[in-house]
Amino acid sequence: MGTLHIAENEEAWRQKALAEFEKAGGDGTVVVPVESQAIGRSFGDDEWFHAVGSHQQNVSGMVTVTPGDGGKPQASLDYQVNVWGRYNWDSEKSTTFPGGLTIPDDDMGRLHKVGFAQEFNMRGSSTYAQDLNSGSAPGVTPAAPGREGSREDVSRGDEENR
Fold first, then answer.
1. Would you tell me how many other CB atoms lie within 10 Å of the CB of residue 125?
2. 13 — phi, psi (to 5°)?
3. How many Å apart are CA 2 and CA 128, to the nearest integer?
4. Sequence-ordered list of residues with C-beta below 8 angstroms from that of 23, at least 6 positions apart, any chain
5. What is the pLDDT, as a whole number, of residue 83?
6. For the chain, how many helices (H) and strands (E)?
7. Alpha carbon 51 to chain centroid distance?
8. Contact between residue 94 and residue 104 where contact means Cβ atoms under 8 Å apart
9. Which of 48, 50, 41 is nearest to 99 (CA)?
10. Residue 113 gets which letter from DSSP?
């Protein structure tokens, strides 16, 4: 998901950070915040489409430039891919599920209004790090500490977890 945003912006972000590094004297670490434009997307006809439908996405992060060996500065990018949207039912639309079952959004919208279905806000992010000197692919940073017992723990409301 973030590959598109990185490919479109990587070189410009690198050049901007290198210019700031030179402007600061070239002898200390410089960190420059970066962010790509948000893009509206829809998943294809698969499980992701049925789970979240359309969404917005972008990349935000920091380019760090440090003095390198032999005077050549080293640049790296620490970034996160951000995804957000609202799962809801729009009037005059419908969704066809595997097996040919088509459900009008108006029907699902009525179920939401009477409390049998739920519209919801969706958001998430994943963090990565990438060396901007070698053209290497990004590497995933350590995983988040988890959500056990927090408000986002999907099993929090289960009887055994009360």
1. 16
2. -65, -40
3. 10
4. none
5. 92
6. 3, 8
7. 16
8. yes
9. 50
10. H
Helix/strand/coil for 74:
strand
> Quick one: tokens of 129?
């790090």
- Cβ(102)–Cβ(61) under 8 Å? no
CA distance 117 to 107: 10
Nearest to residue 103, comparing CAs of 115, 94, 113?
94
- pLDDT means over runs of 10, the chain (162 residues): 82 95 94 96 77 88 92 92 88 85 89 87 90 67 52 53 43
**Sign of the dihedral defined by the CA atoms of residues 6, 11, 16, 20, in that order:** positive
Residue 39 DSSP class = E
First to last CA, the chain: 36
Give pTM, 2 decimals: 0.70
